[in-house]
Amino acid sequence: MSTEAHAAEGATGYIIHHLTSLSVGEGFWTLNLDTLFFSAVLGVLFIWFFKTAADKATAGVPGLVQSFAEMLIEFVDNQVKDSFHGHSKVIAPLALTIFCWVFLWNFMDLFPVDILPLIGSLMGIEYLRVVPSTDLNATFAMSISVFCLIIFYSIKIKGGWGFAKELTLQPFGPWLLPFNLLLKLVEEFAKPISLALRLFGNLYAGELIFILIALLPWYIQPVLSFPWAIFHILIITLQAFIFMVLTVVYLSMAHEDH
To answer: Does residue 229 belong to any structural domain of this protein?
Structure first.
């Protein structure tokens, strides 16, 4: 629906409409179809871009696509070398995937708030939430995936007994085992929660500001939306960078076996 159509319902109805996902199912089994769709499309776009760059790679003067792909790879590789102190062939590709995928999620926030929902309404889709990182389910899915990798590598590198000792004997020794375990569990569970909520909170706030700007008179919107979009480019890049770096740091901690 257009801004004018929702204005008749009031600002509250307009905001709720834009922040409501296209969902099926109930309760725990609810699926946000728009989040899944845009996440899949952006994932395919990421794979296609790097495959195209790899297929057209040359030892001579690189083209624009190859130069940009090499710049991204070098940037991520430097961050991994600075933050990761173990040995793994998985971490650098994982970091590149997380950075690019989360950035593409966030980049959807720069589309005018009414464009894609309007196209969806013409196709008979009542609700369409186009920014996956404004969906708490998506950010938690990503952070829980990282958390599972942290547990996997902690057990793989330290061994089951070594990981158990890390949970129960640090930092105060065996005499305070229950307290050690409580502190360690809080520390471990804080990692995925902080990753998910940080990304969700920043992008949700940014999307809400764009929606509020869209409620203003048409002659005021460009004055506010353009500067906010420029500033928001920094936010979406920074949030993707933070998610990637923290993932690498957490996995580096999981690889420490001393």
So the answer is: yes
Q: Is there a domain that residue 3 lies in?
A: no
Q: Are the C-beta atoms of 192 and 140 separated by less than 8 Å?
A: yes
In a domain, 124, yes or no: no
Identify whether 154 is a catalytic site residue.
no
Q: Above 80 in pLDDT, residue 257?
A: no
Residues 180, 198, 225, 252: which is the catalytic one?
198
pTM: 0.90
Dihedral, 13, 14, 20, 21 alpha carbons, nearest 10? 140
* pLDDT exceeds 70 at position 6: no
Is 202 annotated as catalytic? yes
- Could you confirm whether 180 is annotated as catalytic? no
Q: Among 83, 106, 202, 225, which one carries the catalytic annotation?
A: 202
Total domains present in the chain: 1
Calculate what percentage of the chain has a pLDDT beyond 70: 96
pLDDT in tens, 202-240: 999 999 999 999 888 888 888 888 899 999 999 999 999
